[in-house]
Amino acid sequence: MGFEIERKWLVRELPEDIESFPHKEYIQGYLCTEPTVRVRREGDEYVLTYKGAGLLKREEYNLPLTKEAFDHLVSKCDGKLIHKTRYFIPVAAFAKPASEEMPVSEEMNRHAVSHCQEGARSKRADHGAPDAAADQKGKLTIELDIYKGELSGLITAEIEFPSEEEALLFTPPKWFLEDVTYAPEYKNSYLALH
Length: 194
Fold this sequence. Notes:
By secondary structure, this protein is mostly beta strands. It has a single domain (3-27, 83-193), classed as Hypothetical Protein Pfu-838710-001 (Beta Barrel). It has 4 helices and 9 strands; from the N terminus they run βββββαβαββαβα. An 8-stranded antiparallel beta barrel has the order 1-5-4-3-2-6-7-8. The two termini are 31 Å apart.
């Protein structure tokens, strides 16, 4: 069973050197939102994803698709397709040392699970992009999404963590704005339908 442990933020401003980081163009749509079944083009790769219920932690499974299967399935998606550019930015470039971290916010404490499961890893397929939870050196990656089309102006940042405890203790860089991990209206499956 694969799990995704992820926090999400709105972004205040882009890093000055944004174009120096690896990035890919994404197009995705939703066949179902409860549970979430998504089809996505990630650059030149195609993926079908199942995501279970939850906001901070949830089941996630990825299956590769052919271009033909993606083209067939994307035509059956509900709502609008989401177009975005995703940048992969090492957290280490912006994170404070652990000794300078601030305490976990009251909001995060309210939603924290009392028993963290260390080592739970995402089963995200590696399609040439870094997987934060699978990084052998324990480094994390900011997945910065700049939305296009109807969602133009929306910019979010997500980080996958190897454990709930690490997710809850993380202090974001100053250029992150509001933590929207527990705001369902910022889930891509919601954005596609509204």
